[in-house]
Amino acid sequence: MEDARGLLKQYFGFDDFREGQKPLIDAVLDGRDVLGIMPTGAGKSLCFQIPALMMPGITLVVSPLISLMKDQVGALNQAGIHAAFLNSSLSMGQYRKALDLAREGRYKIIYVAPERLETEGFLRFALSPGVDISFLAVDEAHCVSQWGQDFRPSYLKILSFLEKLPRRPVLGAYTATATVEVKEDVLDILNLRDPLVVTTGFDRANLFFGVKKPRDKYRELESYLREKEEKMPGSSGIVYCLSRKSVEEVCYQLREAGFSVTRYHAGLSDTERRENQDDFIYDRRQIMVATNAFGMGIDKPDVRFVIHYNMPKNMESYYQEAGRAGRDGEPAECILYFGAADQRTNRFLIEHGEDNQELDEETRRIVMEKDLGRLKQMTFYCATSGCLRHYILDYFGEESSAECRNCSNCLEEFDLLDVTEQAEAVVRCIEGCQRSFGVNLIVDVLRGADNQKIRQRGLEENPEYKALPDMTVPRLKQLINEMMMQGFLNLSNDDYPVIELTDRSEELLSGEKLVIKVPKREEKQAPKARKKKAGAASALEEKDMGLFEELRKLRMEIAKEEKIPPYMVFSDKTL
Ligand code: ADP
Ligand code: MG
């Protein structure tokens, strides 16, 4: 009788299990349901593939993406394991043939798209006499949850499919999403019975995390890549951009500058995508510039850096994408370039994107609110002066006491600045306004700017007008951000977000302290920054307001160029 470790060596060539794998495998073999929550790259596939080899009957693996199924089945076949996939990439004839072979018991593991489960042909197979389904593994199980980043209504069919089977198989669910809501949803919706829940650490100690706010992102990127090339020639990395258009631009510029680059986005043909992907994986090209369409299911262990040219829409996406760096355990860098437009663009995508079309209006509204909330958390990651690693682990609900010393904020030397008095002024200033305003206008009032916007609204009458004339715009914004992060203020979810007081605002007026971290190097530059006129903040606001219009134009332009309807431009399918 083969044991799990023997199979690990024989088929996969590994000597030892990684954290979490053994208990998850053993539980399934004992007939117990499981939920495995492990970060990307931790090795979830083996947790269902190894028991699949040891169970008496067939294992079904539900998986959301055709490319994932193809890659995994390909790898299994190469390892000498009989596996197949059933999805819409097969012709009718191929599909029938595969089902016939499956019925004859030719496959130990069958990957199936969730929408296939309840089709007549598949049900007929699953209910045939002699077909014994011993184990059903749900990969990327967060897809059952509307709180997850990629909800798939077809995942909801899993339960009713199970109910049709003569004997309920053991059920395993696997995901990298660890938020409480998603976890509860997976347990409830899949109706796991007394499951063993294993959550492994989300910390990836070999990854360096950094946030930069470059004036010129492209310049920053180019100089980063030059430095990398000097220090570690030949290292591979991914540059993630938010749109196809910027992928094209960045890739073109880097190529012109002499770098070994390729690109990936949903606008390329299947063949070109496959070629470019292989060029990157097999080190024929060093740098991959891509949208978030690139990466799921791709296993390149020696990615040395992942640069985000734009801020993604939430921490789940960020950690998943950044987590593609350093899978081999060697040091690697994950750096995010944050720009003022990033938040606006993401808001636009959340509010006007064509996601969640299949949901009813009420649900769609709830999902959108949730998405905006997550965008806020993502923005705080870019704004925080605290430890980035701790921020990530906190977000995923993990206790983090270990020292980091490996993120841009921990390496930065800070002075601590007590800003309690200034924070009080902010609260009183907001109290003193007749209605709610955005960040920039509040900043203008506090600094005592003398412009039309202020006068039109009579804001020079605010008791806190010119209360903080010496604070620079960035420092005041940092203060307001910090107050939002700590819940002393709230930013509304409107098209033009305004600052609101919260239940906690009063606490600041009654003795609560507020301290912010100020980078030492920045202090040295401060006198220069102070020379700027107080009008700068409103200029920025006007720019922000123009962005909505800009995006609309951009959308029309891209639509025309790519000959697709405008509503497709910013949908996930085209990004
Ligand atoms: P996940 O689905 O959790 O993102 P995968 O199952 O795709 O991760 O595995 C990621 C990588 O880790 C793969 O290259 C896999 O071969 C490797 N791996 C998995 N388990 C082990 C192990 N016990 N020892 C060494 N490598 C492993
Ligand atoms: Mg996986």
TrEMBL record:
Domain Helicase C-terminal: 220-373
Classification via InterPro entries: DEAD/DEAH_box_helicase_dom (IPR011545), DNA_helicase_ATP-dep_RecQ (IPR004589), DNA_helicase_ATP-dep_RecQ_bac (IPR006293), Helicase_ATP-bd (IPR014001), Helicase_C-like (IPR001650), HRDC-like_sf (IPR010997), HRDC_dom (IPR002121), HRDC_dom_sf (IPR044876)
GO molecular function: 3'-5' DNA helicase activity; ATP binding; DNA binding; four-way junction helicase activity; hydrolase activity; metal ion binding
Domain Helicase ATP-binding: 25-196
GO biological process: DNA recombination; DNA repair; DNA replication; SOS response
EC number(s) per entry: 5.6.2.4
PANTHER family reported in the protein's UniProt record: ATP-DEPENDENT DNA HELICASE Q1, DNA HELICASE RECQ FAMILY MEMBER
Keyword tags: ATP-binding, DNA damage, DNA recombination, DNA repair, DNA-binding, Helicase, Hydrolase, Isomerase, Metal-binding, Nucleotide-binding, Zinc
Protein name: DNA helicase RecQ
Keyword ATP-binding belongs to the record: yes
Similarity comment: Belongs to the helicase family. RecQ subfamily.
Cofactors that this protein relies on: Zn(2+); Mg(2+)
Coiled coil: none
Annotated GO CC locations: bacterial nucleoid; cytoplasm; replisome
EC class name: isomerase
Pfam families recorded: DEAD, Helicase_C, HRDC, RecQ_Zn_bind, RQC
Catalysed reactions, as listed in the record: Couples ATP hydrolysis with the unwinding of duplex DNA by translocating in the 3'-5' direction
